[in-house]
Amino acid sequence: MAHILLQEEINSTGTPTTPRGSKFDSNWVDVQHVTFTQWVNVQLRKENITVEDLTSAFVDGVNLCYLLDQLKSKVKTKKKKKKQNSISETTLSSKMNKKPKIPIQMIENINLALNSMAQSGINLTGITSDEIHKGNLKICLALVWRMILFYQINSSSDEQSDVMESPTKGKVSVEKSMLNWVQDIISEYTEKYGFSVGDISSSWSDGKALGAVIDKLMKEKFRNDLEEMFKYFNYERDVINTTKSKSEINEHLVSVANDQLEIPNLIDSDILEKGPEKLSMLTYLSYFKEKGEELMPSAEEGTPASNPVSPKSPRSPRSPRLSHSLSMEEPPVILTHAPELLHDEKTCPFCSNLNIQLELKLAECSKLEIDINEKKQQLEAVEQSLNEVKENSEQKLTTLIEEKQKVVQEVEKLTEELSQATNQLEKEKEEIEKIRETEQSLKNNLESVKSELIISNNSVDDLRREVERLNSVELELKEKLEIERKEKEALKQNFEKSIEKINSYEEKLKSFQEQVENSIVAVDEQSESKEEELNPIETTPRNQREPVANMVYYFFAVLGVSFLLELSK
């Protein structure tokens, strides 16, 4: 198993940590989260997938399988450019469940990706599919860092085997290797402008180191036309002799790197100014190193035809192996240009030297043939054991597939039962909600009834008081009625007495009337007699004397009635 990170750089959950006392004790998780999310989006660009948050990006394992496919494809492309053989593998996207619906299918996708990483030699200590499915941020950061280290940084490193196999170097060797590369390519800048690059964090805050790396790579890109390069970037103008702030310088550098060198913007200028977090900066610098290997290939590979070396550009130093081979080839070149010279292989010191070297090489070749035969025998034995293991694994795989189908069927049944139970639960929830609403309405009605009852109690008290008052009024009225009744009885008795008196008075009046009539008749007779005596010739008729008598009668009648009314009172 490959060991990528130091044990002291990994906590109990397998998460990369930042050493104590650094500037990023509080926010290193946020910085790594932003950087690693940008890195993941760069890799998934071909799949048209954009990730916003690592905690939710790998929950179903789909994006994780697509990410590994892109990384493996990138490594194969690099090996093809270096003319190295690469083993063809089936893509994870063809094996995974592209639309997982239940947690077990999502975890199967995650396990598929983790098993592929483990087979490639990536250490996954402390990283589990359950934690990734739960969205544990630190576990997701650890997983992405190990992919970056294996596929991004070490895939282009000459020290990949040392880094991957050493259990005590881990990230430190990668950091040291990156730092050595940076110091090597910008040594002329550090000497000329008087600055140093001693780490992968604080040395990059002012933009001098990053600007030097960009300037070096830009000069390699624009070898034949530096004036064209100065349109986009000039180290002295844009970094050394500028009045811009550090944040503005870093922002310009990141923009130039993206536009001219096709290096993605993984780190913000503000983070660079504060001193970037180490793992984020290593990830960012790995793109510069990859670009440098593309623009400045080693002497063994030769200079690409697309970027011919200009006469003014400095020549890279030759490796010892290359210089040795040239020293062996130079004499024959000289001899081929002088065919007229006589040549004796026995007396020629160079030929005798060459024969000795050829014998040594033949002896080495024979040893190599023996070693190759032994390796072939070992390889045959390994292939035989592998075939046996393959047969056993195929049998186990078939049984596992059958068991998996059974489990899937059971899971489908459980899913159906779960859906039915969920529907039933939803119905019960709706009924409970209706019951709660009814209960609430009853409570409201009860409250209104209580309030009405209180009001009615108050009104009953008022009615009681009113009844008491009416009772008292009734008693008073009864007393008054009793008094009135007594008064009426007294009045009745007085009325009866008055009626008796009236009756008696009427009788008296009748008698009086008769007396009056008699007196009137007598008076009439007397008056007639007197008139006859006075006027014996002219007499007055009787009907002319009746109005006077009637007037006298009515006078006495009115006088009698008024007298009776006075008596009735």
From TrEMBL:
Keywords recorded for this protein, A-Z: Coiled coil
PROSITE patterns per UniProt: CH
Region (Disordered): 295-330
Keyword hit for Cell cycle: no
Superkingdom of the organism of origin: Eukaryota
InterPro entries: CH_dom, CH_dom_sf
Coiled-coil region(s): 358-522
Chain ranges of the Calponin-homology (CH) domain: 30-152, 172-293
Keyword Transcription: no
Protein name per its UniProtKB record: Predicted protein
Organism: Naegleria gruberi
